[in-house]
Amino acid sequence: MSKTSNINRVDGFAKVTGSATYSAEYKTSGVVYACLVGSTIAKGRIKTIDTKKAEWAPGVLAVITHLNVDKPAGYQKAKDKHNFGQPLQIFKDDSILYYDQPIALVIADTFERMQYAASLIKAEYFKEEHSTELKKQQKKKRKLKPIKEMITIAVNMMAIKMLR
């Protein structure tokens, strides 16, 4: 028999009967919702990004892209063009380095309005060739990135996915 079997939980009856109020059920005023919009290509540059429909959608508070983001200290020019080994700088410029890379952030007053506004954002790209095969890259005798840089990129991509 467990040592805790004779202990009554203060909220036990309320939880079992369905009358308990859980933290997600409390109404909080002033809550806003945000969603990242990802690129639809694996490599290239953003030619145009149309956010006007999303900006004018009901309940939308802001749409942020590389064109209108305030660059805080630390967004200075990287040592190399892809900024490897540095903290992830979302919306740094118009370059696309991987599929589903964040190209816009939509902020709205409800979850549904945020999702709808995100669906209204359309981008056109200058598409570049990408490669996902290591052996082909080796045959082309391209300089391969050191493993530390590859791990940094993978960790940054996972962090972005977790923010969604």
Largest sheet: 3 strands, antiparallel
Task: Enumerate how many helices there are, as a single number.
Answer: 5
The average pLDDT value, as a whole number, equals 80
Unreliable spans are none
Radius of gyration: 23 Å
Terminal Cα span:
44 Å
Strand order of the largest sheet: 1-5-3
In which range does the helix fraction lie?
25-40%
**How many beta-strand elements?**
6
Outline: extended
Strand residues, percent:
15-25%
One letter per element, helices H and strands E, the order comes to HEEHEEEHEHH
Tags for this entry?
164 residues; alpha+beta; 5 helices; 26% helix; extended
Describe what this molecule looks like in 3D.
The chain is α+β, with helices and mostly antiparallel strands. Helices cover 26% and strands 21% of the residues. The protein contains five helices and six strands; from the N terminus they run H-E-E-H-E-E-E-H-E-H-H. The protein has helices at residues 12-17, 52-55, 111-119, 134-139, 147-163; strands at residues 33-38, 44-50, 60-65, 95-96, 102-108, 122-127. Strands 1-5-3 form a three-stranded antiparallel β-sheet. It has a three-stranded antiparallel β-sheet with strand order 4-2-6. The longest helix has 17 residues, at 147-163. The chain is extended.
